[in-house]
Amino acid sequence: MKQAQQRKEGQSAVAACRADFPALDQDVNGHHLVYLDSAASAQQPSAVIDAMAHYESHDHANVHRGVHTLSHRATDAYEGARDTLRRFINAASTSEVVFTSGTTESINLVAQSFCRPNLDPGDKVLVTHLEHHANIVPWQLVCEQTGAELLVAPINDKGEVELDALYALMSDKVRLLAIAHVSNALGTINPIREIIAEAHARDIPVLVDGAQGVPHMSVDVRDLDCDFYAFSGHKMFGPTGTGVLYGKEALLDAMPPYKGGGDMILEVSFSGTTFNELPYKFEAGTPNISGVVGLGAAAQYLESIGMQNVESWESELSDYMTGRLSSIGDMRLIGTAAHKAGVQSFLLGDIHPHDLGTILDHQGVAIRTGHHCAMPVMEYFGIPGTARASLAMYNNFDDIDRLVAALEIAKEIFA
After folding, report:
1. Of the residues 115, 143, 226, 373, which is catalytic?
2. What is the CATH number of domain 49-304?
3. Single pTM value for the model
4. CATH 3.40.50.2000 fits 2-32+307-414, yes or no
5. Among residues 195, 29, 135, which one has the least CA distance to residue 377?
6. 373 is catalytic
7. Through-space distance between the first and last CA atoms of the chain, rounded to whole angstroms
């Protein structure tokens, strides 16, 4: 009884958070906005907007180098955000939290700094058919650079990775497995802990693309035992152009720098350069200070809501959305995995997804249309793209009802 009450209170807290997002309080094309495109970019709460505005208004200066008060304030805010992110993902040390411009840069960093020096012709990098382009192209590039081979584990018609096939590809030639925590196109939640354990049993390090994981569920990198975990600020209610690469300290320490410039050095001369300690070795140049402040505020905001509450609320919404969409005639759901996050791709009759998105926009409903930077997924299903509705903690049941009503209007228009 007590647990049920706590769950109800937690869900109420999540539902009430909608008022914290000013962008949601507006009309679009004469209708109150329904925002169902958070998998592309989530909206920002006032706490994030205010934190960045306060920094820009009162504390702006360059970090790490200055002796004056504003530089100290900026440095404290920047490094304070790093400690918040360390706590948020339960990293062992702030040395394991590298600030980047987002998931894409984080993955490229690992490809070029961890993999490229260690790949020889005949070696393999393993990915799955489910991946975002950002977790495919960097590995293609590094394989071309080194003569290594990219292996791709298959998926099934539900949009799930075929685990037996994935494990069968884990040979002693595989130098890295790169895999999404959650599919951005289909919402599939991969059994990451199990997959990592299988890879580690074969001495294969694992990078997890966590762009769609961190905003929607508790992520404990030490519990997962992943070697690298990459995620973006703008997916987790923070600013664009920010992100994190988590890496085990021993691995990061052994990796050469990804980029050269200021702040990633201890000493520079024409005879040679001594690089800075972790994590600064990978943070060349003046960083996106205000963005990192906002990213830290986003993590604090999520902590105040409680990730267990977020996950529980979104699970209820996702089940409701799947049921409501399934009730629409001529609806084809793309991605029906047993374990899913609040992302649903779909096709409605023979209506082109772009036309569908335009009609829904006229009803004030924002969804994403296209291939979602996951062309191999679309190729598997034999389609050029889909319409995609993606949920966040600020959505509610009324949003889903509005989506369904707008889809019914689209059907009438094309009838």
Report:
1. 373
2. 3.40.640.10
3. 0.94
4. no
5. 135
6. yes
7. 50
